[in-house]
């Protein structure tokens, strides 16, 4: 594989940039692989990469119905954080933060990781207490957390509404300085390029139409490009998990819901951090192009539509204007929607299934993008070793029946309430 | 904007309603031994189909009645609305 560097850039400039190698090939599927990963999104591509890199399993195919990176890894708000209270979520995400910090070097692809810090605003004394508790839990797990008072928040985001007569005054906030953002498409492309260079077949425009299961063992998949055999198959399809589960006669603790995001027209730099509104559900950062990147609530009903509805967007942006009044002056540039695999406790599932050789990676809710490297790393381990790693042992499929839920938000099973 | 025909009030915008989830989920019978699996099915497991989905909505800013709505989860087309005690 051609290494990307300033020297290769200069060298290729002399030949008019006509001699760059393709970043990944477009192979026809072989009849059999050691491992098949279904879903060529961030998590699927990362899983294939870590299977090859950490476990030396390179006879791997990624089967993608559309094109790689066309789902949620291309539709998110690029936020990376590990500000969780529960041990399972905190330790898993903080492991991911280490992978994020080294990702550009590891993948030889600039993913533009920008650890700009995230601030969760608090709007009452009670909320300050909750954040104080969460911050302490984070620090016990080795995650950086700083509790900010009103004046400290004001120094960082003076453009927020600090006037006296607001409905939700800013009391302070919880900051994770090491959190940040990354260039989402680059993450998909970086993983794809490295996985391809180690022998992984990335097969796009190939829909899985069925599974071959016999005596409780997985034997292969049926696709629009023919049947492919494999003894190990990993499902990594986010919002489409239930569609494939139905083909396997499995019912899962997952509902598919619609989440919208939007960007404003680009403006000069004003916001250095990621900021979330604490009296509702709204988050905001500024992209390198200057656009304000914003998101919030689910649309609130089961949906596979990948496009949103105006009432939710209005609701979310009303919260945004309550937090940052200047947003009301901006024009909207783009809005889009993605479909989320909402689990019944708000935490993901990375586990084996009752079918031997079939592995499940789903339930990422709002937080799939930041989990990309840790999800791929632990899913690769789970597939290669046929048992979960310590980091994802809490993300079991049977935790719902055993009562070991990881309900970070305390919402229970009404996944659409936020 | 979705427009939902409340069986009590007529066609109203979605902003008058709140969502209540899958209407096909059945609570296990009272006064009967219930297995863990049955509780799992009721509390956690959802088909979440791509296509026709029978679901509960509450006309919270209207008559406050719970209703059933048959809606396509891919196109958002609404086929039928029923009172909560009616079946398809």
Explained architecture:
The complex is a heterodimer of chains A (418) and B (88). Chain A is an alpha/beta fold and 418 residues long. Helices cover 29% and strands 26% of the residues of chain A. Chain A contains ten helices and 18 strands. In chain A, the strands form three sheets. In chain A, strands 1, 2, 8, 9, 10, 11, 17 and 18 form an eight-stranded mixed β-sheet that branches. In chain A, strands 5-6-4-13-14-15-12-16 form an eight-stranded mixed β-sheet. In chain A, α3 packs across α9 (372-385). Chain A is globular, with a radius of gyration of 22 Å. By secondary structure, chain B is mainly beta. Chain B has a single domain, classed as 2-Layer Sandwich (Folate-binding fold). The longest helix of chain B has 8 residues, at 36-43. At the A-B interface, α7, β12 and β15 of A face β3 and α1 of B.
Summarize the structure.
The complex is a heterodimer of chains A (418) and B (88). By secondary structure, chain A is α/β, with parallel strands linked by helices.
Structural class estimated from helices and strands of chain B? mainly beta
Rg of chain B (CA only): 14 Å
Strand content of chain B: 35-45%
Shape of chain B: globular
What is the H level of CATH, i.e. the homologous superfamily of chain B?
Answer: Folate-binding superfamily
Low-confidence residue ranges of chain A:
none
- How many strand elements of chain B? 6
- Share of helix of chain A, binned: 25-40%
The side-by-side strand order for the widest beta sheet of chain B comes to: 3-4-5-6
Number of helices of chain A: 10
Distance between the termini of chain B: 25 Å
Chain pair sharing the greatest interface: A-B, 25 and 28 residues
Instruction: Find the count of extended strands of chain A (DSSP E, 2+ residues).
Output: 18
User: Given the helix and strand composition of chain A, which structural class is it?
Assistant: alpha/beta
Total number of distinct structural domains of chain B: 1
Q: What's the number of helices of chain B?
A: 1
Low-confidence stretches of chain B: none
Please state the average pLDDT score of chain B: 96
Mean pLDDT, all residues of chain A? 96
Written as H for each helix and E for each strand, in order along the chain, the element string of chain B is EEEHEEE
Largest sheet of chain B: 4 strands, antiparallel
